[in-house]
Amino acid sequence: MALLKTWMKTALPAAVMAGGLAAAVLGSGAAPAFAQPAPPPAPVGEQPPAWAPPKPAEIWNGHPVVWNSAWGGRWGAWINGGFISLTSNPVTGGG
């Protein structure tokens, strides 16, 4: 019985400590952390047609104002992958 108590006080904690150190050295199965890739460059827009209204600004909210031919064409800015329209549709005069 005394031998069991001695083993519980010395050998068991040492084995647990050695196992913990081995797991730490091996990374305990955790995948290494990598930085996220850089986002793609902001779209530069398209060449505006001759009938396009004048460009309202060069920069809006820190983003370049570009022409986008979608929805009949309009000036706007690409922010977080979405197009923010700054002008109305020049063909219909609407949104």
From TrEMBL:
Signal peptide span? 1-35
- Residues of the region (Disordered) are 35-54
Q: Which UniProt keywords apply?
A: Signal
The organism's place on the tree of life at top rank: Bacteria
State what protein this is by name. Answer: Uncharacterized protein
